[in-house]
UniProtKB/TrEMBL annotation:
Source organism (scientific name): Paramecium tetraurelia
One Pfam assignment: TPR_8
Stored Gene3D superfamilies: Tetratricopeptide repeat domain
Chain segments annotated as coiled-coil in the UniProt record: 15-46
PROSITE patterns the UniProt entry points to: TPR
Stretches the record annotates as Disordered: 61-83
Protein name: Uncharacterized protein
Length: 573
């Protein structure tokens, strides 16, 4: 639901607080939920964000030489075989560079990986693969590759000095990757190392300013949450997170849940660590499993508190997330809870129960690490129940429950980000039905703030599917439902530069759709692609670097396929 009504009489005896205190609770929770939702949307949309190309992020085109490697060639007949390996690795690097220049980053990674299997201590290959990972927003992999460069560079006498240029690139790229996963302290540390190597680097200084700016914004956002001014101030300045969490275990009052959320928001790391040490997660799981909360169609904020506490507890902490999944069967718990709540809502329109469902969806979506996402998908219940009992029912509510549908698509996009994701198999097997549901969303969508967020997550989800060839072939096939492309291009043609994020995502969708595919079987798609140059003229007025970069990439795609697209006859559409 977009907003909540509070006209109904509430169960004051259960809340054990005055009406003024209840208003304060509602006020603060709404602000906290809005802040949490904003962070989740930013996190999900960033999964398909093409990074601005810094000068130091360019791939190396120089040939692989013996001196690029930290090891020495043996003085024997084996040296001839080593030279052949180097030559083959150099050929693979050139292929990778070509793929990279054509924005086919996934294929570039495959070429660099194959070359690294031949020469494992070549810093150029590690650096090139790192920037390819960055282009695909696979920042943790980029961090690992940059760390490998620094490990190699530190081997041997004077090795670091000899590899100063490569070390500078590794520090700067790793800093950027840390920045994108909100590890600001580590990012600043790497930037400082890069500036020691090159004190005059404008790229490093610019990145440092961006990181510091984000640090300030994060602090301000947290301060805004903490400094909510209620109608009658709840005296929480004296609340000690240890005392509050200790009371939470006793569960004397529903208000203890709210206090627990407060201290988790204010003292995130310390409170979460204390919560972990005291095995607070076990009490929280009991509360979620008890299913005793009273669900109303117009009021459910208190029922959402367990999900919100779970989000605060697990955010940015892989240890807590992995423990929740492995030790406490957290995936089963959340899947069953969501299905149970959907049954309670029973397809009612505008029921506040859907707000509670959204909070539990967000509790799953907060777990963004690749390893954790794989753990989620490896759960048998998730694989068998997610599509039929969660994805389809929620998608059918897109007209009345926009925020819930947006959160679901955000979760689906994150789960599909890895090409080896098991849920992709489910979506592929249900592809035709899924596309029909997508078309219904596109037909009903109107360009507004709420529907724009929905469309961003929808195309983000589809874009992530398209990193795999079998999905691209489905979209490009002759028998693909042309209604999808009709709705897609209708939306694209209506966009102006105020809908920046949606435009970014739609252009990104087309990039993923077209690369590595010179033959397009869908005649309707060919027909619509011919209209792109006129749209590009309009969109090129944008000052957004991501939009301009994607237009440039698409223009190069169209230029390569110019004869095929503009000289082939198509049937009347």
């Amino acid at each position: 639901m977009q907003s909540k009504d509070f006209q109904l009489q509430l169960d004051f005896q259960a809340l054990r607080e005055s009406q003024i205190q209840l208003d304060n609770i509602i006020d603060q929770i709404q602000k906290q939920k809005q802040s949490q939702s904003l962070k989740l949307n930013q996190l999900s949309s960033s999964n398909f964000e093409f990074t601005q190309t810094l000068q130091q992020f360019a791939i190396s085109n120089s040939p692989i030489k013996d001196t690029d490697n930290n090891s020495k060639l043996p003085n024997s007949k084996d040296s001839e075989q080593e030279k052949l390996k180097i030559q083959k690795a150099d050929d693979l690097k050139k292929k990778g560079n070509n793929y990279y220049c054509n924005a086919n980053y996934q294929q570039a990674i495959l070429m660099y990986t194959e070359a690294l299997q031949l020469i494992q201590d070549n810093v150029v290959l590690w650096l090139n693969r790192a920037i390819s990972y960055i282009k695909l927003n696979q920042f943790h992999q980029a961090i690992e590759d940059c760390s490998k460069v620094l490990e190699i560079a530190n081997q041997g006498k004077d090795a670091l000095k000899a590899n100063s240029d490569n070390c500078f690139k590794a520090y700067l790229r790793r800093a950027f990757a840390y920045f994108k996963v909100n590890q600001f302290a580590l990012a600043l540390s790497d930037i400082e190392q890069a500036l020691i190597i090159d004190p005059k680097s404008l790229e490093a200084e610019k990145l440092k300013m961006d990181v510091e700016r984000q640090c300030v914004q994060k602090q301000k956002s947290q301060q805004e949450i903490n400094n909510v001014t209620p109608k009658k101030k709840i005296v929480d300045s004296e609340l000690n997170y240890q005392d509050v969490i200790d009371n939470f275990f006793q569960q004397k009052d529903n208000f203890d849940l709210f206090r627990a959320l407060q201290v988790m928001q204010k003292n995130t790391d310390e409170a979460a660590a204390y919560f972990y040490d005291k095995k607070g997660i076990e009490t929280l799981i009991q509360i979620i499993q008890s299913d005793e909360e009273v669900q109303h169609d117009q009021y459910n904020l208190m029922a959402s508190l367990p999900a919100m506490i779970l989000q605060c507890y697990q955010e940015n902490n892989q240890l807590y997330q992995e423990q929740f999944i492995r030790k406490y069967n957290g995936v089963d718990l959340l899947i069953q809870k969501i299905i149970s709540l959907l049954d309670k809502a029973n397809n009612k329109k505008n029921s506040a129960i859907y707000d509670c469902i959204k909070d539990y969806i967000d509790a799953l979506n907060i777990m963004t690490d690749n390893k954790i996402r794989n753990l989620i998908q490896s759960n048998p219940n998730f694989e068998t129940k997610f599509y039929s009992q969660i994805f389809c029912p929620i998608l059918s509510l897109h007209q009345t429950e926009i925020e819930l549908t947006t959160s679901l698509l955000s979760l689906s996009a994150n789960l599909c980000f890895d090409v080896n994701s098991s849920i992709r198999i489910v979506f592929y097997n249900k592809f035709d039905d899924m596309i029909i549901a997508v078309i219904q969303i596109l037909e009903n969508a109107k360009l507004s703030l709420s529907s724009c967020n929905l469309l961003v997550q929808l195309f983000n989800y589809l874009s992530n599917l398209l990193i795999e060839e079998q999905f691209r072939q489905k979209f490009l096939s002759q028998d693909f439902n042309k209604e999808f492309f009709k709705q897609f291009f209708d939306i694209l043609k209506k966009l102006d530069l105020h809908f920046k994020e949606l435009l970014q995502i739609q252009l990104g969708f087309l990039i993923n759709l077209l690369y590595q595919n010179e033959i397009i079987h869908s005649e309707y798609l060919i027909f619509e692609l011919r209209t792109l140059p006129s749209l590009f003229a309009q969109f090129s007025l944008s000052k957004d670097a991501i939009i301009l970069e994607r237009i440039e990439i698409l223009q190069s795609f169209l230029q390569i396929r110019k004869y095929y697209l503009f000289n082939q006859k198509t049937k009347s559409n």
